[in-house]
Amino acid sequence: MTRQAPLTTPRLLRLSLPLAAGLLAACGSSDSDIDLIVDGPQLAVVTTTASDFTSGAHALVEIEAPYQTTDDLDAAESDISVTTYGEHIFKLRRFNLDTVTKYRLDAPATPVWQYSTLDADDSSSANPYDLVFAATDKAFLLRYGSDTAWITDPSVGANQEADFKTGELDLSAYNPQNEDGSTASNPNMAAGLVVNGQLYVAMQRFDDNFNLHDAYVAVFDLGTDTEIQTGQDPVLPGIPLPVRNPMALDYDPTLDRIFVVGAGSTFPSSDYSGGIAVIDPSSFETELLIDDTASTGSFGAMEVVSQDRGYLITSAGFANNTLVAFDPRDGSFYNSTAGQPGAVAGLSQTNLTALAADIGDRLWVGRGSDSNPGLTVIDTLDDSVVQSLIPLSRNPARVVFIRAR
Q: Which InterPro entries match (predicted)?
């Protein structure tokens, strides 16, 4: 794994989509790799949430020392998330808030527009979870509280809300069955990823009484926006997963594999039905790469940095987390003893809230705290700590990246 030096002059890079979607793109693409012209410093965009969940905001952090931070941007509710594309930041206000807000990087606290994520006939919160980009003018709005995802045009300007939604994807076939035999209201679409001209949507599938069912990934062709018959299930067209409660998707172009992390059932205690699964995007076949156990704890955030190195936050209970490293090729843990993975950089039995890798393959780790929240930066070449703490006003909940011109 090689480290790219910080960029100060224009240069053409080839990056995998999960990282590239957070950078300034010279042109949109639906492929798993995107050619980008980049000519400015990269910034972290961080969703922050108060420890008592009474407020939230977003922050900008420069990725090089002294890590200059612009915090507390457009502070409001706590149930939020951010994503980025090109020179824009998109904030999703989630349960019972139901909006997406667009900002320019040069005015990160001033909305360009804020549009609803509700259809006229929606009777409950759409709970928008993520905005997954295929191109500048095409992104998929995953609505956790609905059984339809929206096809959107995020490039529209102010006062063009009628043009924001351009279509929808029907995922109602994945609504699970309730205990009384009725059909649940939605399949809980929670994560999405674009790879090789296809959209992958992971669904957690809780029924209306919060019982957890087998998880699926639906696959759509970007050219036609129609669902692909993967041939992996006798009834449904999508991919049944060997893990439950999927939280995130990641893709490694060298291995040509999609990684799915599942938390399993975590309330009132873990049933260890989660883990990390791998999808072959050529055949849609799956395998269980890492199984969660009482020894490993349940799984949370995941980041695959390279073909031979990934990172995972494990949990032994609320705010009791450990950062571990694994080999994406075979699922083995680095620094393990008797099957127990060792902690990276001493981050064990502490509140870890987010993971993301920057353009230099440094790992950004969210640190939750009532009194001293922030971010720790780790060099993935040797797992040494680059910066022990970048202070923030609230707990970091998600970290993505954007590049300034």
A: WD40/YVTN_repeat-like_dom_sf
- The whole-model pTM stands at 0.90
- Report the candidate in 191, 193, 195, 192 with the shortest Cα–Cα distance to residue 32: 195
CA dist 354 and 248 (Å) reads: 12
Q: Which DSSP category does 382 fall into?
A: T
Q: Pick from 393, 401, 313: which is nearest to 48 by CA? A: 393
The C-alpha atoms of residue 251 and residue 260 are separated, in whole angstroms, by 9
Question: 197-217: b or e for each residue (b if 16 or more CB lie within 10 Å)?
Answer: ebbbbbbbbbbbeeebbebbb
Say what percent of the chain tops pLDDT 70.
Answer: 90
In this structure, the dihedral spanned by the alpha carbons of residues 302, 394, 73 and 82, taken in order and rounded to 10 degrees, is 20
Is the N-terminal amide bond of 18 cis, ω within 30° of 0?
no
* Tens-place pLDDT, residues 44-63: 999 999 999 999 999 999 99
* C-alpha to C-alpha distance for 342 and 324, rounded to whole angstroms: 6
| Strand ranges (E), 88-146 | 88-93, 99-104, 107-116, 128-135, 138-143
- What is the spatial distance between Cα 247 and Cα 224, in angstroms, rounded to a whole number? 27
337 has a pLDDT exceeding 90: no
Q: What is the distance between the alpha carbons of residues 23 and 251, in angstroms, rounded to a whole number?
A: 16
pLDDT band for position 21 (cuts 50, 70, 90): very low
| pLDDT score, position 31 | 32
Q: What is the CATH number of domain 123-357+373-395?
A: 2.130.10.10
The predicted structure's pLDDT at residue 196: 96
Higher-scoring residue by pLDDT: 24, 85? 85
- Report d(CA 349, CA 356) in Å as an integer: 20
Please tell me the number of Cα atoms within 13 Å of 367 on its side-chain side. Answer: 20
Cα–Cα distance for residue pair 56/28, rounded to 1 Å? 30
Record the tokens describing residue 172, joined without a space.
């109602």
Look up residue 82 and give its two tokens. Answer: 């951010």
* Residue 108, preceding peptide bond in cis (omega within 30° of 0): no
What is the tally of helices (H) and strands (E) in the chain?
A: 1, 30
How many other C-beta atoms can be found within 10 angstroms of the C-beta atom of residue 287? 11
